[in-house]
């Protein structure tokens, strides 16, 4: 029996005109087109749902969208309550999911940062695994023992979604100050409680995923061409003296770290999660002080 769906009508509409091209009802060709249209219809319905992917009231991925906006899914809430909370989060600041809108939101909140697209894409390790020296106080007048002067090194990190925690058992062993020889509870496998551990994410190694990672930090240095060093024009030198190929022009070379007040870290990350484009990861080149 023929299926009266959009995909079957599309197939019939693509057939040449004339009675020779009208399949016999319930014949082999008619049944073949029915099966073909059914497989196409599944894909069409799936793609149709994508237009609602960022709509809190109709999204087919409610849990994923909650995580994108930094909301931890609460099983104690009904789906209607979760949708209402998500809608408030999405529409309260009118985010458009663009890098410019994210940067504007951060600056309005008092964070003097820049948002940089990873285009042309480079390995995020180049940016996030950079180490840089931290100095507090006057580097010229600092002295040994000065509590306002210290040095250290730090690197960037990935912000993917709101915090996700798992519980790690806190075991009671003979090395525990609360345990004693002969304690019947100081046995293998016994634990007193669970210690929350926040989930962390590794920098992806698949180059196809690199364009979906953007960076938040200070001034960026890119591979801008200043001199062609070969006659074929394929090798160029940047203002930093790094030799790159033509396809690498404009790639990020480094990003300066920005200091963020430690007591505003949650606010800083929440703004990024609220405004960042869907299905992207943020590489933060910041220092919390």
Written overview of the protein:
The protein is α+β, with helices and mostly antiparallel strands. The chain has four domains: 1-50, no CATH class; 53-92, no CATH class; 94-163 and 200-219 and 256-288, no CATH class; 165-198, no CATH class. The protein contains seven helices and 15 strands. The chain has helices at residues 6-14, 28-50, 62-68, 79-91, 99-108, 124-128, 265-275, and strands at residues 114-116, 132-135, 151-154, 157-159, 165-171, 191-198, 213-217, 220-222, 225-228, 235-238, 243-245, 252-255, 258-260, 281-284, 286-288. A four-stranded mixed β-sheet has the order 1-7-14-4. Strands 9-10-11 form a three-stranded antiparallel β-sheet, with no helix packed on it. β9 (225-228) and β10 (235-238) form a beta hairpin. α1 packs across α2 (28-50) and α5 runs antiparallel to α7 (265-275). The longest helix is centred in the N-terminal third of the chain and has 23 residues, at 28-50. The protein is extended, with a radius of gyration of 28 Å. The model is unreliable at 147-153 (pLDDT under 50).
Task: Outline the fold blueprint.
Layout: H1 6-14, H2 28-50, H3 62-68, H4 79-91, H5 99-108, E1 114-116, H6 124-128, E2 132-135, E3 151-154, E4 157-159, E5 165-171, E6 191-198, E7 213-217, E8 220-222, E9 225-228, E10 235-238, E11 243-245, E12 252-255, E13 258-260, H7 265-275, E14 281-284, E15 286-288
Parallel strand pairs: 7-14, 13-15
Antiparallel strand pairs: 1-7, 2-3, 4-14, 5-6, 8-12, 9-10, 10-11
Helix pairs in contact: 1-2, 5-7
